[in-house]
Amino acid sequence: MSSTENPFFSTTPSEAQGSSEVEASGETPDKLTAMVEMVRELSAQTDAQQMVSDFGDRFRRMFTYEGFIALSRRGLESPWYRITRSSLWTTPINPWKQKDQLPVLNGGFLGELLYGDVPVIINDFRPNPDDPAYEHLKDFRSLQAVPHYHEGVGTNMAINFSTRPGAFDLGKLPDNVLTHNLFGRTTNNMVLSQQLKEANDALDAELKVVGDIQRSLLPHTLPTIEHMELAAHYHTATRAGGDYYDLFPLADGKWGILVADVSGHGTPAAVVMAATHAIAHAYTGPDGHEPCAPCAMLSYLNSRLVGKYDADTVMFVTAFYAIFDPATRTLTYSAAGHPPPRLYRDGELTALDQVGGLPLGIIDQSDYHSATVQLQPGDRITLFTDGITEAFDPSRKQYGEARLDAVLQQAGMSQAKPEDAIHVLLDDVHAFAHGMPNDDDQTILALQVT
């Protein structure tokens, strides 16, 4: 149906003449200035409710109408609708946060307009006293109704009223439809953006709690171990992560040293990390008193993780576990798919890679073996997760093991203490990354034999 065929439209010569008079009077530049000021002001808004209020105030001043009402049929069936705004209200209601306070009406003139789904101008308006919305209509003699379309349907409608008959110009209706709908989309995007921010803030708060719980599972302070100095660094890529390190006091003054890395990062990895922590602390060894060989500990962890997570989970854990005996300065170790630690001694850097096995949690009955290295005073051992070697620079080049070895070699030759060696390594990783954020969690455990 064309505009001239629509019975709600009213076109008169006086209206067309009125449009020409606006241009002749020089009012167009004034309106352009007002429009620019309005758009500038709206662009600075961050609150949808305030933005709609400011838009309405300026629009009324620019186009001289005396009343307005806004309708919505979201979530309702015909002919029901909500009044979301009205010039009759002395206290505005926020339709996004106070939806339960909005009046819901059934049918009548406003229902016909809203569900009619087309722009309408009525320049000789005479409301029916029996209309359910008569209180909102009774003082007015002309109106302009503009649907706000969403997914092809006019789910909302803005109606401007005037106490004067013939107050609205049909020639301006197309521009008004465009202006209203662009503003409506802007408002909707702002609301969605705010809702997304609130959801992200709530999720971030939950993740912070998860991260705090996870960090509580790590050693609060590093223990004092005879013939060994220690330092540690732990940083997650997100609030929570999958890296894990721990130190266990064992019988006869021995110490268990564990570094592990759950595949992925974030909350799922943190959950598996917590399970790994619980399993490791529950292990008492074959004799029921303490872990014996490190390979037995890894076999125990593997069997329990395989039992907890099925094939659909697609998560695994790399781990390096060692037992240090201060009395003999020996380190017996086993590995499950984890990057081998580096041993610096007398100017040379070697990898503790004599044994290895599959990551934990992939298949049951996986074989793990142990190896022993005789340490001596001055030896430095660096345990790390692949978040260090797989750090990226802006060109997506990885930091790599060669650069890691070069830095550890330099730190060893300078006889850097464990804490200083960690700082040297991290400074080099950060310099390499050139501000690129960590894609993975990063853990370093530095040991020095005394």
Annotation keywords:
450 residues; alpha+beta; Beta-Lactamase; Phosphatase 2c, domain 1; six-stranded antiparallel sheet; five-stranded antiparallel sheet; 11 helices; 16 strands; elongated; EC 3.1.3.3; Bact_Sigma-Reg
Number of strands: 16
Mean residue pLDDT: 86
Largest sheet: 6 strands, antiparallel
Distance between the termini: 92 Å
Structural class: alpha+beta
Number of helices: 11
Spatial extent as radius of gyration: 36 Å
Provide the CATH top-level class of the largest domain.
Alpha Beta
Shape: elongated
Q: Encode the helix/strand succession as letters.
A: HHHEEEHEHEEHEEEHHEEEEEEHHHE
The percent range for helix content is 25-40%
Q: What is the beta-strand fraction?
A: 15-25%
Q: Strand arrangement, largest sheet?
A: 3-2-1-6-5-4
Q: How many domains?
A: 2
Which stretches of 5+ consecutive residues score pLDDT under 50? 1-26
* The CATH topology of the largest domain: Phosphatase 2c, domain 1
Enzyme class: hydrolase
GO molecular function: phosphatase activity
Organism: Algisphaera agarilytica
Keywords: Hydrolase
